[in-house]
Amino acid sequence: MTKARLFRLSVVLGSIFMILLIIVYWDNVGTAHFYLHTTFSRPHGVLPTVAKDGGQDSMSDVDEFLEKLLSSDLKRDVGLGQKTEPPAPHASARPVAGNLEENVRGYDWSTRDAGAVLDQEQLQAERRRTLRELCANSSFAFPTKERSFDDIPNYELNHLIVDDRHGVIYCYVPKVACTNWKRVMIVLSESLMDQGVPYADPLDIPREHVHNTSTHFTFNKFWRRYGKFSRHLMKIKLKKYTKFLFVRDPFVRLISAFRSKFELENEEFYRRFAIPMLKLYSNHTSLPTSVSDAFEAGLRVSFSDFIQYLLDPRTEKLAPFNEHWRQVYRLCHPCQIEYDFVGKLETLDEDAAHLLQLLKVEHLLRFPPSYRNRTASSWEDDWFAKIPVAWRRQLYKLYEADFVLFGYPKPESLLQN
Fold first, then answer.
1. Which of 103, 191, 249, 274 has the fewest CB atoms nearer than 10 Å to its CB?
2. Is Transmembrane helix there in the keyword field (predicted)?
3. Could you give the maximum distance between any two Cα atoms of the chain, in Å?
4. How far apart are CA 353 and CA 359, in angstroms?
């Protein structure tokens, strides 16, 4: 009797286990066969064997099974790519006269002097070496530096966009050409369609769809689909795929964020940030509920208000910095993720062209033309002229890790005058 019960129990447990494995298999492979909607596009190549952890001599049976599933899945034809839901009726994202923000930014459609192209291989080697050495340097410390990749919460991985079709991971940094890089990722992954056809020109993708979080498949979404296998999958892709990010001078990025979010009428940022700033730092007690009414009344956040907000210890206690002024090391985790390519806005055109060549996709698209009148580092003196030196020094300490990690010189003139 006891043996019969044990046998029945083993059959039940075995059935449950097989059902779970079938679910995993269907999620990774089955949907591709039937061309159904799925978050993943078709990857390329074969994944490597996962490195063994610490004292473990071998992977668990489940991990080994998952590895085989992933490998077999990745060998299949990349032409079976996923197609996500089509967007609302198409509206071109190219600059038009009525688009205030695009007019403020402007585009530079001029061609580049080929003779000015930098030695990209050497430049990239130097940028990667700087990151490796500083991350390994125990005397250089900043928050979160010492934690492992497994220690990073899922919600902090929401800036890592994955393209499985070409094996690319992009960590986007707001105010560093991220709109156009997101457009490029959409074209590469074919994750968005216009009237049933994937977008082929990045600039044809409407801006509102570019920044829609449902458009991109990011690391923080893995757990919903893969549960306990999420980190395992992330590590495989981090090892196999080409990982890149773009950065810019931290202080100039702050100026750009201020101009974009507080000098233009932005209802969301007015309600979430401008109203509290005006009350806390400009002593306004009664404020209009809409940004248009506030602008008409001459009530605008000053750059000084913005700097005070960043330095105020109450800001981080209430909520993490908004992504537009959050430090790059907190967005992209450069000491936990070994990036293959580090681009800079200051050399955007050359870096973008070289990256597309490295990814072997230059025949598919070109990076959209960069903005003219970009916020320039030469503007720093004017913008910080009315900011007390003590505040400037505090601000530098707040963003020092970004300056150092990405090779930006310390702004001595701003910190001493």
1. 103
2. yes
3. 89
4. 10
Mean pLDDT, contiguous 10-residue spans, the chain (417 residues): 64 57 41 29 33 36 50 40 39 42 40 54 96 96 96 96 97 96 96 92 93 93 91 96 97 96 97 97 94 96 98 95 98 98 95 96 89 63 94 98 97 90
Asked if residue 66 lies in contact with residue 24, where contact means CB atoms within 8 angstroms, the answer is: yes
Q: What are the start-end ranges of the H helices in 241-339?
A: 250-262, 267-269, 275-281, 291-296, 303-311, 313-318, 328-332
Whole-structure pTM value: 0.76
Distance CA 387, CA 359 (A): 43
Q: How many CB atoms lie within 10 A of CB 24?
A: 19
Within 10 A of 104 (CB to CB), how many other CB atoms are there? 13
Q: How far apart are CA 188 and CA 345, in angstroms?
A: 21
Residue with tokens 């779970």: 20
How far, in Å, CA of 131 to CA of 17, rounded? Answer: 44
Rounded to the nearest 10 degrees, how much is the dihedral formed by the CA atoms of 384, 323, 160, 233? 130
- Please report, as a single letter, which amino acid is at residue 288: P
